């Protein structure tokens, strides 16, 4: 399994989301503009992944995103980032750093989870950039 970043059009989004939900994936979305502001990004990720606690900083966010047990999903996670064109060159200052966290989580669920979590299982964590 190779986690992937895919670029899709707004017209494709609804159909793809529906298909992924039918396949059993946890499907969620954020707006790309959330990547431009740290506080907004933390709040959006909390909302998108239905986390009940507070997320005060990025270390905390990484802990949350490498856990996700409360979602009770054995198949995997799909994140749609809407309005992706708003974070391409010239990109806002915080967007690259915040997006790099998504890459870390993709890698974690693809490989690392089996090495650092007792009984951890590899899962899909794909990202769809919606233009």
TrEMBL record:
Domain called Barstar (barnase inhibitor): residue spans: 26-125
InterPro entries assigned: Barstar (IPR000468)
Superkingdom of the source species: Bacteria
Pfam families on file: Barstar
Name of the featured protein: Barstar (barnase inhibitor) domain-containing protein
């Amino acid at each position: 399994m190779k986690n992937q970043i895919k670029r899709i059009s707004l017209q494709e989004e609804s159909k793809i989301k529906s298909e992924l939900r039918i396949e059993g994936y946890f499907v969620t979305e954020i707006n790309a503009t959330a990547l431009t502001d740290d506080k907004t990004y933390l709040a959006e990720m909390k909302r998108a992944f239905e986390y009940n606690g507070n997320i005060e900083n990025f270390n905390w966010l990484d802990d949350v995103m490498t856990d996700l047990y409360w979602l009770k999903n054995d198949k995997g996670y799909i994140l749609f980032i809407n309005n992706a064109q708003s974070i391409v060159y010239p990109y806002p200052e915080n967007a690259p750093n915040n997006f790099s966290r998504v890459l870390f989580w993709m890698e974690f669920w693809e490989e690392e989870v089996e090495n650092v979590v007792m009984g951890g299982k590899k899962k899909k964590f794909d990202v769809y950039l919606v233009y």
